[in-house]
Amino acid sequence: MSSEGTIVGGRFRLDQPIGRGRAGIVWLAFDTRLFRTVAMKRMYLPVGAGDRAEQARAAAMQEGKDAARIEHASAIKVFDVLPEGQDVWLVMEYIPSRSMATFLAEHGRLTPDQAAALGIQLGNALTAIHAAGFVHRTLEPGTVLLADDGGVKLTDIGISGGGPSPAYVAPEVARGLPPSPPADVFSLGATLYTSVEGVPPFGDDGQSSERPAQNAGVLTAALRKMLRSDPTTRPTMADTVRALSAITEGRETAFIPPTAPGMPPPPAPPTPPFNPAHTPAAPPLPPSGPQYQQQIPLTTPAPGFSSAEETQRMQPVAAPGQQATQYIPPPVAQPPKQAADEWNLPVSKKTLITVAAILAAVLVGILVSELFFV
Q1: Is the distance from CB of 326 to CB of 296 less than 8 angstroms?
Q2: Best label site of 13, 28, 295, 336, fewest CB within 10 Å?
Q3: How far apart are CA 167 and CA 233, in angstroms?
Q4: Residue ranges covered by each domain of the chain
Q5: Is-above-0.70 flag for pTM?
């Protein structure tokens, strides 16, 4: 029996259960070798002993290897498949999400446009699975994951353990024929039907008469073709994707659920305790009172205004019983003062030098005049 803290395969530590699928409990685990979080599922094996049990283990190992071959944005990536005692474990990427079945139970139906956008992503993933040479076999709302970031992930790819819900099994498979790509088309149609109607098209047992769609809207015709009882008359998966794309009319095909899954918000950083000693002092306020207010005539334009009238309009209006406060213009930048002189001499010495120079010029002029007359 698996429990928290168990080490699987010598490296994967089981931390906590995060869901229950057809094949058993899904665990949040930690890869102690690569230091990453993963999801792990113990694959369902029928109870038995001897050759039957060994054949079941071999089949589960092969299903895990097949699932690991799928590389698609809308398919859960399988990293590894591990034998552990009598069990077989799948090691998968961890995506914060909830199953479509849980989502519909909590938030109700999808709109036809939302279901079509969902079907496009699932159909593309199923096309990649079929191109790899096998089928999903167990497509239903419980194997569709709606990620917290709005993405869609298909899980349990090619895994037969636990068995699919009969409400989503194609009629030919229910009669004993092997699963095929047309069977996946039927299962996709039944899943999308449930997303807009709230109930499966042929009842929970898959044996009731078809219930006419009431909320499918523009999706009705496409669903009717996908749910045909004869697999040879159903559209291919590629044709299904094209039909769903036509319904969205080229709009954004990313599935956006009507209500984001409820995830706890990240914890807020702790607030440091108040310490008055570390509180900066407020800057001192400027002095107030009539003696500090500049009184300027309102007939003179204030700096920054084009006219005295504009200055007048900017004057504050005093409340009744209070004296109006004159407008105090901002300080006007003064032109830089020139140095007293280029020799850094005081102003008085410069004046004396200037006077002496003038007297010298006068004396020189007198001497020149006397020499000229002589």
Answers
A1: yes
A2: 336
A3: 20
A4: 1-94, 96-260
A5: no
> Which residue, 339, 332, 267, is CA-closest to 303?
332
1-94 and 96-260: same fold? Answer: no
Q: Are 188 and 226 in contact (CB under 8 A)?
A: yes
DSSP assignment letter at 24 = E
Residues 128 and 75 sit within 8 Å (Cβ to Cβ): yes
CATH number of 96-260: 1.10.510.10
Write out the CATH class of domain 1-94.
alpha beta
| Residue 216 to residues 127, 146, 153, Cα–Cα distance (Å) | 24, 20, 23
Mean pLDDT of the 66-78 span: 94
| CB count in 10 Å sphere of residue 368 | 9
DSSP per-residue string spanning 25-62 = EEEEEEETTTTEEEEEEEPP--S--THHHHHHHHHHHH
Condensed to tens digits (0 to 9), the pLDDT of residues 98-145 reads: 999 999 999 889 999 999 999 999 999 999 999 999 999 999 999 999
Nearest to 138 by CA among 78, 179, 197: 179
Give backbone dihedrals phi and psi of 276, rounded to 5 degrees, phi first: -60, -25
**Cα maximum dimension of the chain:** 151
What is the end-to-end Cα distance of the chain in Å, rounded? 138
**Secondary structure of 124-150 as H, E, C letters:** HHHHHHHHCCCCCCCCCHHHEEEECCC
Half-sphere exposure (CA, 13 Å, Cβ side) for 176?
A: 0
117, 123, 146, 352 from 247: Cα distances, Å? 9, 14, 21, 99
The partner residues of 31 in beta bridges, in order of sequence, read: 12, 36
Q: Which residues does residue 39 pair with via DSSP β-bridges, in sequence order? A: 28, 92
CA distance 302 to 311: 6
In single-letter form, the type of residue at position 123 comes to: G
Residue predicted with more confidence, 287 or 311: 287
**Residue 187 zone, left/alpha/beta (φ > 0; ψ -120 to 50; rest):** alpha
